Amino acid sequence: MNTMTNNNIEQFIASIPKTELHFHIEGAIPLETLLRFIHRQDKKSLIQSVDDLYERFTYSDFSHFLETWRWKDSFITDERDFEEIAYQALRELHIQNVKYVEAYYAPGSYERQGLSIQGITEHLIAGKERVYQDFGIRSEFIIDLIRNHGLEKGMYYLDEVTPYLGKGVIGIGIGGPEHDFPPDPYETIYQEAQQRGFRLTAHAGEAAGADSIRTAIQKLNVERIGHGLRAYEDPELVALLKERQIPLEMCVVSNVKTGVCESVEVHPITQYFEQGLLVTVNSDDPVMFNTSINQEYLILLQKLGFTIDELKQLCLNGVMASFLPQEEKLKMKTQFEEEWQQLLEKYA
Questions:
Q1: How would you label 299-308 residue by residue, b for 16+ Cβ within 10 Å and e otherwise?
Q2: CA distance 177 to 193
């Protein structure tokens, strides 16, 4: 493996089997598709090319990223758009040999455009079923209750999506401006969701500190943490994450692009992995951050010193941290190990 050329390394990374557990479907809209949505609404827009979109998707800080996210959302004006979004985004993951996806979506963001929670959900499910038929990539959706929309809206979103539990929707989460909206108030909604059978995750420790992670664990009873970047601020929390093996949905490029982490080189993913935390690798909003799941793994190998064996462990972590039933996890883990063995022999 040490004699591989850069080209071979990229081919190897592209070929390894992967999961995506922290992947926002609206942050993965292909630029060409988004450009078409923009021109459908405003033919005279200053955004005239994919290059213009690349330039627009540059952020001064986390708040600027959220502002840009809302701008992008304003061009999604038809519930049917979500079937195409799901199909195109998941197809791109299939090309990168992603086998299984748990994708966030935030349907409450589109009520101002007159789009319904249930309509969006149904079109996303239609898109994910089409892409499964065409390419075999499996996926489930996690509804983002959007912490800054408040508790009343959060419960409404939960009620609206409950009919789709087990039919394409698997869990709930809260994203949005974590630094202004801590997780505590969502305790009752999470309890209700858990009773209904939803799996539980929450963005925490991204734009806010270690207390946000601890609260998500203690108050919301989450099974996974979205990001968890700033756990290092509290060594006792790190010990708890290790002891309970609570998975971290880590997204290196995203954290650097939004300014919550200074650089790739100081990202704590290496430290957490070495400490025995259950770390997973994800691309978050790949189009908005000009990254990909392949790129995330390449960075770990080329810039953070992860070995090939450690990348394999990260891939298997993604399977075991998923919300799949245990029997299906073990079956997928075996599939991943077989594919890895074949690749190691091919590139030896």
A1: bbbeeeebeb
A2: 22
Q: What was the pLDDT predicted at 305?
A: 95
Q: What is the pTM of this model?
A: 0.95
Our measurement of the distance from residue 30's CA atom to the centroid of its chain's CA atoms, rounded to an integer in Å, reads 16
Query: The tokens of 346 are what?
Result: 């091919």
Listed as ranges, residues in the chain with pLDDT below 50 are none
Per-residue confidence (pLDDT) for residue 6, from 0 to 100: 74
* Strand order, beta sheet including 199-204: 18-24, 98-105, 138-144, 169-173, 199-204, 224-227, 248-250, 279-281
Please give the domain boundaries of the chain with CATH numbers for all domains: 6-346 (3.20.20.140)
Q: Crossing angle, helix 210-218 and helix 235-244, to 10 degrees?
A: 40
By annotation, the residues acting in catalysis are: 206
CA neighbor of 204 nearest in space, from 109, 153, 221:
221
Cα distance between residue 234 and residue 109, in whole Å? 33
